[in-house]
Structure formats: structure tokens, C-alpha cells
Amino acid sequence: MDSVLSPDFRPTQGKGAATVLERIGNTPLAHLEGVWCKLEFLNPSGSIKARIAKHIIERAEEAGQLRPGDTIVEASSGNTGNAMAMVAAVKGYRMLVVQPVGISSERLALSRALGAEVMEVGDFHVNEALARAQELGETEGYFCPRQFASEWNVEENRTWLGPEILHQLPEGAVPDAVVAGIGTGGTLVGLGQAFRAVNPDCLVVGVEPTESRTIATGAVGRHQIEGISDGFVPQILQDHRDEVDYLLAVPSAEAVSEMRRIAQQHGCFVGPSSGAHLLAAKKLQRDRPELKTVVTLFCDGGEKYFSEHFLSAAVQGSESGG
Ligand code: PMP
Fold first, then answer.
1. Domains parsed from the chain with CATH numbers
2. Which ipTM did the prediction report?
3. Does the beta carbon of 187 sit less than 6 angstroms from any atom of ligand 1?
4. Catalytic status, residue 91
């Protein structure tokens, strides 16, 4: 019998069963308005954090720090909680997400939908949730991945996300700069290490909300770029401060309007940090036109911000006859 498969058929999975975790990574690298944007919101669980969740959990299993029957407990502004809940569900661990009160209800609901228990601790910033998760992590039968401090976070970005981007850039192109907001700092530091291995002059540029320039000035404030500037200088950044060249500030309101524009003009339904990242990357290119290959990331999807930013806008749109 002739094969039913056309010659153009390109399988993406080998024979046999896979899990949803196989979908992590291999996201597209788009070129938007002169900036290379890694479309990380397309990862399962809806963010870049799927990568560190899988990597840190598997590293901890190998190291014997995480054993069958254990509970994973992690502090998160939401995306890492969602990602760890997904990995824990696949691998059969109990998951406890500790997150601040009053951050996106979508992320809280998604962690619960993925089978995690969510404990709300502290107000807006992640400090108190972090302390509680670390304390619980000391308990027998609990494992705390400590995303804000773990070198496995940096390692994932250096050895997986970074090489993937290098592979996707056009022949002969190497990054002249990487621009990323700082939550744990793992993305920025890990990508900086990966890119400097091929271009030692690659600039490593962090992004903070103008309202909360914690790393640049020590100021802590409320802002709308959730996922970055969590209220403290993360351990990873303390350990690798000399690897970051400088910090740009983006006002929350501009990040949010850029987020809306990205959806409407590029079809990428992303969250506020993606708006901040693209604005900061374009500013860097305007200020330093010699930087040809600038890389940034669209870290999470707009679905995580429906109640904060989109449903109310839709209501306003229809009220004004739109
Ligand atoms: N953007 C979003 C939406 C995030 O959730 C995070 C991580 N919390 C970041 C950016 C920053 O990534 P990192 O933790 O690697 O600094």
C-alpha cells in the first residue's frame, strides 16, 4: 500500500508517547521593528518560565534534592508558579505556590487549574512570599527551587535559551546587545553569558519600571510591569552584578500601551514586560545605532492580564461605540 504520508510531511515527535513538556522551547525568533524578539509566551503554561521550571526540577531530581512524594514550594509573582505547577503535574509532585496578594487573578487561577495549592502572602511585592517559601522549603518532604538565587536558573538560560537564539539568528549575526527585565535576573545574566561567549562585547542591559528602580537606585514602588522588579535585588543579580552593563527604565503606562500596540500590529498577544522590553530595545538602538543585532524577549501572554488590562478595555471600546 502507498504511504499515506505526503513527501512534505515533517514529524515533530518521534515514535511513542510524549508529554506537554516536550513543547517547551524552540519558540520562534521574530524580527520586529529592527529588534530580534524571542516569542517565549508560546511556551506551555504561557511563559518563558516553563524552561527554568523543567530545568531546575530535573536538576534537583538528579541531585537527589527532590524525591517522589515530595512537595515543591516556590515563591512567584505568578508565571514560575504556573510553570512549576505544570511540571509538577506531569511528574506527580505536589505543588505549593506562594504568591503576593493582589497580583493577576488569571495566574492564580491557572496554578490552581494545574493542580497546585496557592498560598497568598504579602502585598504586591514578592519579599514575604519568598521568605515563607524558603522557610517551608526547609521542612522534611519539601523542596524549594529558589528561582531568585539558583545557579540552575542562570544555567538554563546560558545552555538552552541562549544557544537556541544563537542558532536562530541569521548566518554570521551575533548579538550586539541583550535587553531584558529583571525578576530573578536569570534570563539577563544567563543570556549575557551565552552571547558573550560568541561576542565578548555584547552589551547586557537590564530593564526596570520607572516607578521601581530597585537595582539602579534602591527605590521600591508599585508598578504595572508584573514579573519584573519584585521588590528586592535578587540574589542572582547580587552574585552577577558586574555582568550587567546598565539599566534602562520604562514607565508602566508606556509598557502597557506598547503591549497593546504589539498585539494590534504584530499579532503577538503579550503581557506588559514584553512592551517594556521592546520599548527599551528600540531606545537602545536609537541611542547606539552601531548595535545592529539586539535581542529581547516576549516573556508571557496577554491571557494572563485579561482582567487587569483587556476586559475593561473591551468594555470601554464597546461603550464608546467601537
Ligand atoms: N517578564 C515576565 C512576564 C516574567 O514573569 C519574568 C519572570 N518573573 C520576567 C520578565 C523576568 O525574568 P527573570 O526572572 O529571568 O529575570
1. 49-143 (3.40.50.1100), 161-308 (3.40.50.1100)
2. 0.99
3. yes
4. no
Angle at 303 between CA 104 and CA 271, to 5 degrees: 75
State in Å: Cα 48 to ligand 1 middle.
7
Tell me whether residue 150 is one of the annotated catalytic residues. Answer: no
Return averaged pLDDT per consecutive 10 residues of the chain, 322 residues in all.
76 86 97 98 98 98 97 95 98 96 89 97 87 95 97 98 98 98 98 98 98 97 95 96 98 98 98 98 98 98 95 52 34
Q: Whose CA is nearest to atom 10 of ligand 1?
A: 227
pTM of the model: 0.94
What is the residue-wise DSSP string for 89-142? HHHT-EEEEEEEETS-HHHHHHHHHTT-EEEEEEESSSHHHHHHHHHHHTSTTE
299 lines ligand 1 (CB under 6 A): yes
Query: Residue 170 gets which letter from DSSP?
Result: P
The residues, any chain, with a CB within 8 Å of residue 116's CB and separated by 6 or more, are 81, 84, 85, 88, 95, 96, 97
Instruction: Find how far residue 178's CA is from the centre of its chain.
Output: 14
